[in-house]
Specification:
single chain; alpha/beta; four-stranded parallel sheet; Rossmann fold; 8 helices; 198 residues; 4 strands
């Protein structure tokens, strides 16, 4: 058995940085799904009353609960930051979804409709196509977008925003938010992570 030949593909693949990020992306996606279940259980325990909440609090304040909540938060942050990497991968003519949770009165120099598209075009030096979807859930054709840049979600609760992140991931669309996008296009994000050597 020691002289048995190996399949040729085994020598071709070498573990790479991008493979690690892909595995981490999938793993944190699973953590987000588990975290959403915990969040629903939390809300149900609050709705059921003091006794049910006490049971949940006992779990959440224990080691397993704290680890699960920490893993959920790490996954949440990773997925928002992961969308930032997509900005550097945008190609000429890519469609970007600007997702706004509310249908506010649009200002002359609106951040989502004017400033972010301008800054992203200046940063990438590419002709990108921007579409805004406001006051609703994601559009039915979400898969057609190269990136989703979401507002700060001040009109959404945590459950709804988490659901949107998981939905974007499920449909294969990188998602980030206004703040991280602004930090990326102005160089703040890269300066902040420079000491980490990433």
């Amino acid at each position: 058995m020691a002289n048995r030949p190996l399949s040729p593909h085994i020598s071709v693949y070498r573990f790479a940085y991008t493979m690690a990020l892909s595995i981490l992306h999938r793993g944190t996606g699973l953590l987000l799904s588990a975290g959403l279940i915990v969040l629903v259980v939390f809300l149900a325990s609050v709705a059921k009353g003091e006794e049910a909440y006490a049971v949940f609090h006992g779990f959440a304040s224990g080691v397993a609960g704290r680890l699960l909540i920490a893993a959920f938060l790490i996954g949440f942050c990773y997925h928002l930051a992961n969308g930032i990497r997509q900005i550097d991968k945008l190609k000429e003519g890519d469609r970007i979804l600007i997702a706004e949770a509310c249908s506010h009165h649009v200002q002359k120099d609106d951040i989502g409709r004017v400033k972010l598209p301008r800054w992203l075009k200046e940063y990438t030096k590419k002709n990108l196509i921007f579409e805004t979807y406001a006051g609703h859930d994601f559009p039915p054709n979400l898969e057609e977008y190269a990136l989703c840049v979401h507002c700060g979600a001040c009109m959404l609760n945590q459950v709804e925003m988490n659901r949107r992140i998981v939905e974007a991931q499920r449909r294969g669309v990188p998602i980030t938010n206004y703040g991280l996008t602004i930090a990326k296009v102005h160089g703040y994000f890269d300066r902040a992570i420079a000491p980490l050597g990433l």
